[in-house]
Every structure is written in C-alpha cells, then in structure tokens.
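User: Please predict the structure of the protein below. I'd like the answer in structure-token form so I can feed it into my own downstream comparison script.

Assistant: Understood. Taking the following sequence of 114 residues as input:
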Amino acid sequence: MSRGRPAIHTPGGAPAGKAAHLVECGTRALLTAAFGPEQEGELAYTRRLLHALDDSMLLLADCAFDAGRFLAGIRERGAQFLVRSSARRVPTPSSAWPTAPTSPASATASCPNC
C-alpha cells in the first residue's frame, strides 16, 4: 500500500532514493548525510542534518531549502544562513535589519572597531 505518488524506480528496477549532505566548503569534508525514500523529500532529510550545525557555521543553500521552519531550525542551532530564494517567496523578517551605510566615510564613522 502506497501513499501519495507511486514509487519511483531506477532503470535497473531498484527503488529510487534521495540524499541530503552537509559539506564543509573549505575542505569539502562531508560532515553528515541523511537518506530516505523519494516520497519524503529532500527538505525532510535536511532537517535531520541540523544537529551538526553550530554557531561558528554559515549554511549556504539553494531555493528548495527556504522553508520558514527549516530556517528557524538553523537559527536555533546558532548558525547563520544564506539561502537563494525564488521570486515567489516573500520573506517575513523576524527582526529589523541594520541600515547599511550610504558612504565609505559614514561606514568608518559608524564602525567602532574600524
């Protein structure tokens, strides 16, 4: 008995699966991975990877991973994120963003550590 879409099989007849990987950009080291059936979807797998994030990390992701609950999970782990989003997405910021300086002089003046 199957729910949703029928099972997808590879040309050899084996059931198709999906995988999500968390890879370190500098060294390209595989930090963790999650696998599962096609029907579950990649976003469900990526939620299983959140445990490997910490506050020293910046997560880069494509537009398929811009779901609000997923991004909230990244923030809960303390990590930063940069996610490409589709033109249809209208994000709702959880807080105000700082105003960018309008000139190099004002940037230096407003930066106490510069």
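That's the full token string. The radius of gyration is 19 Å.
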